[in-house]
Design goal:
By secondary structure, the chain is mainly beta. Helix content is 9%, strand content 32%. The longest helix is centred in the last third of the chain and has 21 residues.
Length: 267
């Protein structure tokens, strides 16, 4: 599976203030078989956090390395692993954000237990996204079926969408916080998901914006049936360049001045 590697924000800041950049990425390389995410912190290469220095927050063994450069998620229990972006992050930094991952569920599985990705305002570790007031989020069941929820929790959701088991699929959530009423879209393998019914299109518009969300991450749920081990890879969160602190503004301005000075000397 192709590995994605993020770029440090300092290398992107002067390139495009308006464009989307890698904010958080983890390709899970370097995790040994059975090694959990409990102590995994950004290393600047395989795991990058351009928002802050926070690592994964979890108390669970259900998220661990599979020994082949991927993340094994065992859905025998309802758990989550999250990264804290900070309170008010999406209101302070309005824009278009995408959260994506590749997931594979084994063939021959039954039951409705699942793994998924999403946004949530609460960090209660022994819980899936359904119960954290999460919005938006999606799940991939053992059977291959997928559901997307605008939220909060299991509200404003799609019907089951069938995918092939035993194959990697790419899931994307696109959250737009730049408009007065936030919107969300989703794709599965680059195909848009109908979030509103055929007559209303693929964009779900919030009546009440989920302004309290501050965490992004992965969750899993055991639905008292059969469990399986799903494989996740290439966790990626992209969005607008965060508004820097005053010291950061001065640093960026100084860097821009040096860049212009060099150009003048060369010219």
């Amino acid at each position: 599976m192709r590995k994605l590697v993020g770029l440090p924000l300092c290398g992107l800041l002067l390139a495009s203030q308006a464009g989307a950049v890698v904010l958080v990425s983890d390709n899970f390389s370097g995790l040994t078989s059975g090694q959990t995410l409990q102590t995994r912190t950004p290393d600047g290469t395989n795991f990058i956090n351009n928002v802050n220095s926070n690592g994964w927050s979890t108390n669970s063994i259900v998220f661990s390395g599979n020994g082949s450069g991927g993340l094994a998620v065992n859905n025998f229990a309802s758990r989550n692993v999250l990264i804290d972006l900070g309170a008010g992050y999406f209101t302070t930094n309005p824009g278009v954000y995408t959260l994506s991952v590749t997931m594979t569920t084994p063939t021959g599985q039954t039951g409705t237990s699942w793994a998924g990705i999403g946004f949530t305002p609460i960090n209660t570790l022994d819980q899936s996204f359904n119960g954290l007031n999460s919005a938006p989020w999606l799940l991939h069941r053992n059977t291959g079926n997928v559901q997307v929820f605008g939220g909060p929790d299991a509200t404003n959701g799609t019907s089951a969408i069938a995918t092939t088991t035993g194959a990697a699929h790419t899931f994307v959530l696109r959250l737009d916080t730049s408009t007065p009423q936030w919107t969300v879209q989703a794709t599965i393998d680059s195909v848009a998901v109908d979030l509103n019914g055929a007559s209303a299109g693929t964009t779900f518009t919030y009546g009440t914006n989920p302004t309290a969300i501050r965490y992004i991450g992965i969750a899993t749920a055991f639905n008292n049936d059969s469990s399986s081990i799903q494989t996740l890879d290439n966790f990626l969160f992209e969005g607008p360049v965060p508004i820097p602190e005053p010291a950061g503004v001065s640093l960026a301005a100084a860097a821009a001045g040096v860049f212009l000075l060099r150009r003048r000397r060369v010219g």
